Amino acid sequence: MSQARDHGSDHWQIRPRRDRVASPGASALRRVAAQLAAGAPVLPVLIVAVIALVDLLGGAGMIWLPLLAAGPALAATTSGTRGVLCVGLLAAVVGVLLGARDGAPRHELAAVLSVVVAVTLASGLAGALRGRRERVLAAVRSVAEAAQQALLTPIPATVGPFRVAVRYSAAAAEARIGGDLYALVSTPYGVRLIVGDVRGKGLPAVGTAALVLGVFREAAYEEPDLLAVVERIERSLARNLEFDDFVTAVVAGYPQAGHLEVVNCGHAPPLLVRESGNVVAVETEHPAPPLGLRALTGETPSLQVLPFADGEQLLLYTDGVTEARNHSREFYPLAEGLARHVSDEPARTLTALHDELLVHVGGRLHDDAALLLLRKPSLLETAVPEATVPEATVPEATVSEAILPEVTVPEVTVPWKTHVQARSS
Question: Does residue 389 form part of some domain?
Answer without folding.
Answer: no
